[in-house]
Amino acid sequence: MSRMPFKRSHIFINKAIQVRFIAGALLMILLSGLCSALLIFWITGGDLQAQSQSAHANIANSWERLGLSILISNAVAMIIAGTLAWYWVLHATHKIVGPLYRFEKNCEHIGEGNFDDYVSLRETDQLQALGLAFTHMVDKLRTRKSEQQEVVARINAQVEQLKLDQGMTGHQLGELNELTRLIKQL
């Protein structure tokens, strides 16, 4: 039986997180454009006004100044927007990658049988629901392990009682010793 390739049925899985990322990216684009426009206005505003009032305005000189101004303002705007975008993406992804790192480490500890760790996320971190589900899972595993240890202790006590029985054959005693060895593996 072949598996069908996974197809996404919903574009927005967690709308709040995805909308914040999209809004942040759009804000960076808008800030970049605004910064560029303001720089062009600031750099060329006085020159173009003075040249447009002159009866002998040199159009070629205006285009050279305007082209240089556009180049400089766009370069500055890209540097500013790039720096802001870098900071924003680092900050936003930290709220997802940090919890995922903690989940990874806790999974390793749980795989080793250590059920004492809890996933504790900061209030501002994403994946809060996953953290709660993970904590409930660990609690259930801890309870199940405790119940199993109690059952194993009761079985051990009964096996030890059977070993004290004087009517045991050598074969039965050997089977009880094998059962004791298997119980210790649990």
Keywords:
mainly alpha; rod-shaped; 186 residues
List how many beta strands DSSP finds.
0
- Low-pLDDT stretches: none
Largest sheet: none
Shape, per Cα inertia axes: rod-shaped
Radius of gyration: 35 Å
For the record, give the distance between the C-alpha atoms at the N and C termini, rounded to a whole number: 36 Å
Mean pLDDT: 76
Q: Roughly how much helix do the residues carry, as a percent range?
A: over 70%
Report on this structure.
With about 190 residues, the chain is mainly α. It has a domain at about 15-95. Helices cover about 75% and strands about 0% of the residues. Helix 1 packs antiparallel against helix 2. The longest helix has about 55 residues, at about 60-110.
Question: How would you concisely characterize the structure shown here?
Answer:
The chain is an all-alpha fold.
Layout of helices and strands:
Blueprint: H1 15-53, H2 59-111, H3 128-163, H4 170-185
Helix pairs in contact: 1-2, 3-4
